[in-house]
Specification:
The chain has 584 residues and is α+β, with helices and mostly antiparallel strands. It contains 22 helices and ten strands. The strands form three sheets. Strands 2-3-1-4-5-6 form a six-stranded antiparallel sheet. A two-stranded antiparallel sheet has the order 7-8.
Length: 584
């Protein structure tokens, strides 16, 4: 591997999370054993992988995910983004913790994200010897959901490697703590955090308010996941019906291709070379998520001229139109992904893009717009000044871009991406190679369509959700006001309370008047009346506390209190935090 390859792999492994993408990791307790051989660790991870997937199979096997299915893969190397701390350039060696991990693009269907949280909670509940982490593009979104209940010292810059799901509950590691010979660093590695979590040395369980906030969000699952599905009848070409019959989950790929279509995919749909065939049309029932259904219904799209459409006046026009959009989506997806195989073969033969076609191939065009590997590579080039500040779209910029694309196509990452992108094409080809005819879909007892009133009458649900959130805001503000009033009206020590008890307004006014009327000498002012200067004393610790309250929380008292106590005493609000600044 060349130096440029190594730098690219380093940059790609630590790339920013793509938009609307969820990352999660499951850490087994045995991974903390430093004496376990690598072969045994890998074998046990694969066993755990099967156990986890088997645990959730009952309530996740028929679920139609928006883009990608829930998946788990073993990870042992230190290059995994799941185990990085905030110091990316000098990662902690103890961050290398074997685990299972996965990523899932949820797109417009945020319910996929919370379904994964439910799945992770169930896994840690049913397999007590594992713990889990989950985060997304916005960072620690569990903290965002429980923003009104999390500890006030918890901030984006100190929350990394502190939030875990363990034994079905949320755990938040303290800022800095010690128990006997054990000490939790201020910036813990994954290994440090897992040790603190599983050893029992520290109290890590989050408060009941935090537990309730998260449990409220995932309440109703897995039944809620099934409610999120929508079933509808559609009229599609025979080949599309055959694919959906054997692989109903491919509907998500078709809807994604249709929803994110570009000029090239529109050209592919205009020809319908793969799926229209002899134009045999059949009726089928399709399951998809509500988000997918909304994406199809809400977009206006003109049917290709070659596509046999039902007349607009027909009562079955809606079924035909929806089927047409799905069919075009399948065609777009198939043609877009089919190019990856030829590009991979050309790369293996050592042929350059210019030598093959003279222009950029469709696969490379797709890479520029959808390939997360290419995005990471391009971003690393920009950070190193590869484009020299040239205007995007200029002749010199295009030349550098073409050279970068040509280099990227010859990397091992592009080969891996190509295989993943081409997998649905191989699956479709295999399905369509099986014997099938329109008679297979005649006389079927199709279930009725689900009501889609939720698509048009969501105002009540939105209002209810906003009112529920407003209750949390009001409750938080009341508690915050009480804390401020308590600070203003109650002393922080017994000395202050005794002074307040001895306080007399009339005596103060009388002594003040005598002090003003008293003639002072060269020795200075004298205390009038029975004032006893020897009884005057000053509590320095209390004075510093009062001074801090008067001037704000920025005064640091070294040796007086811990960082966590200082944050607890301050008026810093969890609501002012932006946990979206956390990146892996």
């Amino acid at each position: 591997m060349t130096a440029m390859d190594e730098e690219y792999e380093y940059s790609a492994g630590r790339a920013r999370i793509p938009e609307d993408t969820l990352l999660y990791a499951i850490f087994p307790d045995f991974a903390l054993s430093e004496s376990m051989p690598a072969e045994e660790t890998e074998s046990r991870l694969k066993e755990l992988q099967v156990q986890c997937l088997d645990t959730i199979s009952d309530f996740a096997k028929d679920y139609i995910w928006q883009h990608e299915s829930f998946n788990l893969q073993p990870a042992i190397t230190s290059s995994c983004t799941c185990t990085l701390n905030s110091n990316l350039r000098n990662p902690n060696p103890r961050d290398t913790v074997p685990h299972l991990h996965g990523r899932l693009k949820y797109g417009d269907n945020v319910e996929d994200e919370w379904f994964v949280v439910f799945i992770l909670r169930e896994i840690t509940k049913r397999i007590p010897s594992v713990s889990a982490r989950v985060w997304d593009t916005d960072g620690e979104f569990l903290l965002i959901e429980a923003a009104y209940a999390i500890p006030r010292w918890l901030r984006p810059e100190n929350s990394w490697n502190r939030v875990f799901i363990w034994r079905g509950e949320i755990h938040i590691l303290p800022l800095s703590a010690s128990a006997g010979d054990y000490h939790l660093p201020v910036k813990p590695s994954v290994w440090d955090s897992l040790q603190a979590l599983t050893s029992g040395f520290l109290q890590t369980r989050a408060s009941d308010a935090v537990q309730n906030a998260i449990n409220s969000r995932i309440s109703g699952y897995p039944d809620k996941a099934r409610v999120n599905m929508h079933r509808v009848r559609v009229r599609v070409p025979l080949s599309v019906a055959q694919v959906l019959k054997h692989e109903p989950h491919l509907i998500s790929r078709a809807v994604e291709a249709f929803y994110d279509r570009d000029v090239d995919s529109m050209k592919a749909a205009s020809r319908m070379e793969k799926f229209l065939g002899n134009k045999e049309m059949v009726d089928v029932s399709v399951r998809m998520s509500r988000a997918m259904y909304a994406q199809l219904v809400q977009q206006a799209f003109q049917a290709p001229r070659c596509y046999p459409m039902t007349p607009l006046s027909s009562p079955n026009y809606k079924e035909a139109e929806l089927g047409m959009k799905i069919s075009c989506g399948f065609e777009m997806m198939y043609q877009q992904r089919s190019h990856y195989q030829s590009e991979t073969e050309n790369a293996e033969l050592g042929l350059s893009g210019s030598g093959v076609a003279g222009v950029q191939s469709s696969a490379l065009k797709a890479a520029r717009s959808r390939d997360i590997g290419w995005e990471a590579f391009r971003r690393s080039l920009e950070n190193r000044g590869y484009f020299r500040g040239l205007l995007e779209g200029s002749k010199d910029h295009k030349k550098l871009m073409d050279e970068a694309l040509d280099y990227y196509r010859n990397t091992t990452l592009f080969s891996r991406v190509s295989k993943v992108m081409h997998a649905p094409v191989e699956c479709i080809d295999e399905i369509l190679s099986l014997p099938h005819s329109s008679s297979d879909f005649v006389g079927l007892d199709l279930p009725p369509d689900d009501e889609d009133l939720w698509l048009y009458n969501g105002e009540e649900d939105l209002t209810a959700a906003m009112l529920e959130r407003q209750k949390e805001i009001d409750s938080y503000e009341r508690d915050r006001l009480k804390r401020k009033q308590s600070k203003n009206t109650t002393g922080n020590c017994s000395t202050s309370r005794e002074t307040m008890n001895d306080f007399n307004v009339e005596d103060v006014a009388k002594n003040m008047q005598e002090f003003v009327d008293k003639m002072s000498s060269y020795e200075g002012a004298e205390v009038p009346g029975n004032g006893n200067s020897e009884s005057i004393s000053m509590n320095m610790r209390q004075f510093i506390k009062e001074l801090k309250l008067a001037t704000g929380p920025d005064i640091k008292k070294k040796g007086v209190c811990s960082e966590e106590e200082s944050l607890e005493d301050s008026d810093y609000s969890s609501l002012d935090m932006d946990f979206g600044t956390i990146r892996c």
